[in-house]
Structure formats: structure tokens, C-alpha cells
Amino acid sequence: MTDLSCRHDFVLFFDVKNGNPNGDPDAGNLPRLDPETGHGLVSDVSLKRKIRNYVEIAHAGEAGKAIYVQEGAILNEQHRKAYEAVRPEEKTDGLKLNPKSDDEANQLRRWMCANFFDVRTFGAVMSTGVNCGQVRGPVQMTFAQSIEPIVPQEISITRMAATTAKEKEQRREGETEEGGARTDNRTMGRKHIVPYGLYRAHGFVSAKLAEQTGFSDTDLDLLIEALGAMFEHDRSAARGEMAVRKLIVFRHDTALGRAPAHQLFDRVAVLRSIDGEGRAINRRLDNYPPARAISDYVVTIDREEWPEGVEIIEAV
Question: What's a BP term from Gene Ontology annotated to this protein (predicted)?
């Protein structure tokens, strides 16, 4: 693996149809949104989770591609593996552990970075009980925000099956005849969906921080692979149809970069496709029909007077 020598920035577009891309537990699992603008939100934590899941599925058992933050994982036990590697002669079971020196602390961090893809990619706080220190990751992502305001819908659902024999008996007792039609005492529920939404997120890859964690060109290729395919292995009834629609990567030819990230992001615009033409979106002035497919949008890149030393890679 070769060290990452160039800075990268990227813009990710994905959409959802009749699903909940990221429920808010503080709001009854409603789709997250900005209350002032009505734009939908998907947290960076949610996106990183899907990247981790893809790497775990696609590269399970491969050296250096283990996942540190897994569902149900005991993080201190992950840290203990580093101590077992650095202190093979000592018993570490059941003990609170701290590095004995700065050199040992560096060895522990290097071991965690070398073995766990998500530690050397996103970083981690590993100072809980069994102390492996902290790692600042070279890859960071923003919240994703929908291009236009979303209108979450609440759908009523019913369950026909009973959980217990007692519940089945209660349902039978609750059955009545009204106007010739039988009504059942069934369990009711709610499901929240976004009819359609196109979301945009930004990402940053620091070559300088990559030097500290060992994040390599090979890891970058895997990250791009995971970004493009992360929804293909994350299907569920709650999420509806989700798909990555576009991934634009800006590759600088230096570690520090050739242009500020925000200037590159500003060159990527999303227009509404109306009668085959791309038109700017202005919610106060336009009267466009609701978007219901990716074909209702046009993504453009302003390439005029493009900064020298920055390559555009349309990965998806």
C-alpha cells in the first residue's frame, strides 16, 4: 500500500423513495429535518455506519479491514487486543490498562490504525478504561441535506398476527359485526416515509492526517467503492429505495491542496429539470411540481477557469 499523498474533497448525492433515510429518535423516528427550512437531514454518523457495514460485508476477514465500531461490540475488548500485541508477556484480562510511556502509547495507536479500517479512516476516541488514546481521522463528512424541502408522511399499518395466545383471545372477543362487515381488534402501528428526496453531502480527505493513521491510496479506493455501493447492502422496508446517484471527487496534486473545498463545492449546482431544461430552484418564486425521481434534477459542474492542479473524478 502506498501512502496517500494528495488531498481529496468529494460531493455525494443520494436519493430516497418512499422510505425513511435517517429517523430521529427524539421525534418518534420521524425523518430528520431542519425545522426552519423543512430540508431533510441525514447525519454523518448514519453515512459512516453504512460505509462500515459495506467494508465489513465485502472484506470480512481481510487483514487491516476489521471494523472497530460494530453493533454489540465491546470497545474495551478491542483495545485489549492492542495491549496483547504490544505486551505479549503480560496478562491483560479484566484489567484497566494505560500505556506506560509515550512510545507505548504510539505503538497502541499504530496497532489500532493498522488493524481497523474505520479507526485509520474516521479516527476514534479509545481512552475508555482500556486506554489506547485518540486518533484523529483523515476522512470527515458533513450531514447530508435534501436539495428541496421534504414533506414526511405518516402511514398507518396493521399487524394481523398475534404475539401471544392471550392477545389472540382478546382479538377474538373484540370482533364485532357492523353493517355486515367484521372489524378486528388488530394491533395498529405507524410508519414514516419521505415520498422522494435527493440529498447532498460533502466529504474531506486530508493527506496530512492520513500520514498519522496510515490511511493509504488503497484505503481511499475502498472508501470510494463503499460510498458508491453502501445502500446496495443496507436494504430494509423502513428505508424504501435508496441509491447513490452521483459521487464527484476532487483530487488535488498536493497534500495541502490547490483550492479551498468550499469553492470547489460551490461549482457543483443542482437544477430542476423542467421540459428538458435545467432551471434554478427558488422556493419563493417557482411553482414546479414535486420531484419524484432523479430525472427531475440536473447536476452540473462549472468548469470555467478551473483551478490548476485539481482533477475532477466522477466516480459514480
Answer: maintenance of CRISPR repeat elements
Q: Which residue has the cell 455506519?
A: 49
Cell of 262: 468550499
Q: Are 255 and 5 in contact (CB under 8 A)?
A: yes
SS3 content of the chain, % helix, strand, coil (to 5): 30, 35, 40
Q: What is the pLDDT of residue 175?
A: 57
Contact 25, 32 (CB under 8 A): no
Name the helix (H) or strand (E) containing 81: helix 75-86
Mean pLDDT of 139-154: 94
Nearest to 6 by CA among 306, 314, 202, 249: 249
Q: In this structure, are residues 231 and 14 in contact, taking their beta carbons and an 8 Å threshold?
A: yes
Tell me phi and psi for residue 296, to 5 degrees: -80, 0
CA distances from 80 to 91, 100, 185 (A): 10, 15, 52
Whole-prediction pTM value?
0.88
The single-letter DSSP state of residue 32 is P
Crossing angle for the helix pair 217-229 and 44-58, nearest 10 degrees?
Answer: 110
